[in-house]
């Protein structure tokens, strides 16, 4: 169904005119001073160094202007630019990989293009042709191909970003915008080993609310999480985002979650929160994993929110097999512990997840299958 909807959306996109927003108009201005490409990228934080060129497409006077791939440079922005005040900014994150055959491939870029377009609509930013953007990003990656690192777990992280720039203080649809795509070499986020993470949950702090914009990749969803993430860092943990009176488990940090357990009926079941309520980002890794495990057909798969109470009880009864996070940056990361502050002022409870006993736990199998495809 996802694929059919995507195909329809793309077909519809190709019927509409988007001015000069077309790969055939792409100009290339090479940098006069290419930077040295680092040989060892282990330990580089995400987006800490960028490649030589970026793709830039400006939207002015209600029209997309000709796209250009040019040297990465600071942008000039008016102090009244809407993005600096009201945050009309959206982004995506996808990766290109160098295969063992030395070919470079991007992982499901059409999904990122569709999600960016969905975010653009919600943020009242200009619509664009997803097929053409994908094409132009491929052109950028082709130009920057020497930057796509070799080695398992390494990739070129691609960051499209669209934001409103017109200099006027009205809270209104931006009439000017910029779409910029940069690339950065990137290694495995939690190092080369299989390193579990901890999560910190306090129902007082929420990330998204029903009817809000939690399911869109908008900058405004991320800035408010930083101060809470600092609190979580005191426990060397990432934030686990709960929602509502039931304390639904929604997602964590910047990744989606899967719980693999024996349910109260004794069935093996994989649970992941649903994308239907707008509370979580509809992750592309999540979608890929759901597709895989449905093909495997080895256990029950349910899209619903597990509650904190259920998880606490299931851990106490030894029914939880694994709890893991999934996303483009982390791919798959096991969770070892939740530090849970159930009520304000109360001390925290620690919920420890068992070390998987199987030599090939589900999280690892999923990780190897996804990275194998990549
Ligand atoms: N949830 C949030 C809030 C995110 O920022 C991300 C990262 O993009 C994800 C989940 C995982 O999504 P994806 O698998 O598309 O990277």
UniProtKB/TrEMBL annotation:
Reactions listed under catalytic activity: L-leucine + 2-oxoglutarate = 4-methyl-2-oxopentanoate + L-glutamate; L-valine + 2-oxoglutarate = 3-methyl-2-oxobutanoate + L-glutamate; L-isoleucine + 2-oxoglutarate = (S)-3-methyl-2-oxopentanoate + L-glutamate
Coiled coil spans: none
Keyword Transferase listed: yes
Record keyword Membrane present: no
Cellular component, GO, one term: mitochondrion
An annotated GO BP: L-valine biosynthetic process
EC number, as in UniProt: 2.6.1.42
Keyword set, alphabetical order: Amino-acid biosynthesis, Aminotransferase, Branched-chain amino acid biosynthesis, Pyridoxal phosphate, Transferase
InterPro entries for the chain: Aminotrans_IV (IPR001544), Aminotrans_IV_CS (IPR018300), Aminotransferase-like (IPR036038), B_amino_transII (IPR005786), BCAT-like_C (IPR043132), BCAT-like_N (IPR043131)
PROSITE patterns: AA_TRANSFER_CLASS_4
Pfam families: Aminotran_4
Enzyme class: transferase
Cofactor: pyridoxal 5'-phosphate
Family affiliation: Belongs to the class-IV pyridoxal-phosphate-dependent aminotransferase family.
PANTHER family named in the record: BRANCHED-CHAIN-AMINO-ACID AMINOTRANSFERASE, SUBGROUP IIII AMINOTRANSFERASE
Identification of the protein by name: Branched-chain-amino-acid aminotransferase
Source organism: Pristionchus mayeri
């Amino acid at each position: 169904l996802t694929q059919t909807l995507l195909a329809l959306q793309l077909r519809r996109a190709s019927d509409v005119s988007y001015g000069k927003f077309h790969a055939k108009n792409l100009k290339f201005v090479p940098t006069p001073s290419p930077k040295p490409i680092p040989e060892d990228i282990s330990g580089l934080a995400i987006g800490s160094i960028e490649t030589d060129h970026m793709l830039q497409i400006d939207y002015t006077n209600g029209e997309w202007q000709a796209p250009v791939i040019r040297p990465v440079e600071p942008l000039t922005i008016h102090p009244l630019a809407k993005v600096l005040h009201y945050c009309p900014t959206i982004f995506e994150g996808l990766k290109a990989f160098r295969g063992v055959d030395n070919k470079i491939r991007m992982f499901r870029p059409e999904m990122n293009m569709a999600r960016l377009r969905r975010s653009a609509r919600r943020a009242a930013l200009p619509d664009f042709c997803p097929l053409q953007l994908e094409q132009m990003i491929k052109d950028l990656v082709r130009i920057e191909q020497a930057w796509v690192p070799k080695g398992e777990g390494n990739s070129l992280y691609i960051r499209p970003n669209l934001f409103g720039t017109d200099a006027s203080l009205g809270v209104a649809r931006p009439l000017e915008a910029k779409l910029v795509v940069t690339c950065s070499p990137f290694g495995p986020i939690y190092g080369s080993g299989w390193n579990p993470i901890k999560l910190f949950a306090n129902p007082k702090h929420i990330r998204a609310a029903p009817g809000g914009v939690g399911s869109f990749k908008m900058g405004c969803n991320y800035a408010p999480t930083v101060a809470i993430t600092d609190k979580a860092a005191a426990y060397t943990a990432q934030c686990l985002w709960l929602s509502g009176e039931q304390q639904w488990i929604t997602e964590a940090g910047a990744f989606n979650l899967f719980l693999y357990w024996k349910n109260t009926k004794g069935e093996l079941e994989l649970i992941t929160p649903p994308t239907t309520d707008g509370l979580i980002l509809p992750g592309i890794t999540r979608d890929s994993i759901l597709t895989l495990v449905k093909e495997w057909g080895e256990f029950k798969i349910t899209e619903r929110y597990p509650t904190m109470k259920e998880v606490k009880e299931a851990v106490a009864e030894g029914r939880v097999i694994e709890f893991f996070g999934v996303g483009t940056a982390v791919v798959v990361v096991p969770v070892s512990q939740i530090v849970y502050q159930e009520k304000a002022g109360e001390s925290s409870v620690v919920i420890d997840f068992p070390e998987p006993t199987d030599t090939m736990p589900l999280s690892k199998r999923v990780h190897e299958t996804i990275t194998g495809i990549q």
